[in-house]
Inverse folding.
């Protein structure tokens, strides 16, 4: 459960950062954060299904058995959530821009 929360928060941060860095795709703070939260959750789930997830699951399982999460799994979740949030925010911004141009 903690991993999901970390992914969602880091996704919101990643979406906001991508919006600030890539003004062309910026949708505003709230929409960037919402897209980032969704992307962070999806990014964490995809990472869990791919090869990186096995290592994170093993590290998380060992850390939870010891009574907490280890730093490696937290960093992995922050990275996957942040990247997922940023990527989804850019994709949504790109689609929004393409639809706006088509309507002109």
């Amino acid at each position: 459960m903690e991993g999901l929360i970390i992914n969602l928060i880091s996704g919101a941060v990643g979406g906001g950062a991508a919006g600030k860095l890539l003004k062309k795709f910026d949708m505003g703070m709230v929409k960037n954060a919402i897209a980032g939260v969704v992307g962070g959750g999806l990014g964490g789930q995809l990472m869990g299904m791919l090869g990186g997830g096995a290592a994170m699951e093993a590290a998380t399982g060992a850390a939870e058995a010891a009574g907490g999460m280890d730093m490696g799994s937290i960093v992995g979740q922050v990275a996957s959530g942040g990247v997922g949030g940023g990527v989804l925010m850019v994709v949504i911004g790109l689609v929004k821009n393409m639809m706006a141009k088509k309507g002109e």
The chain is about 85% helix and 0% strand. The longest helix spans residues 71-103.
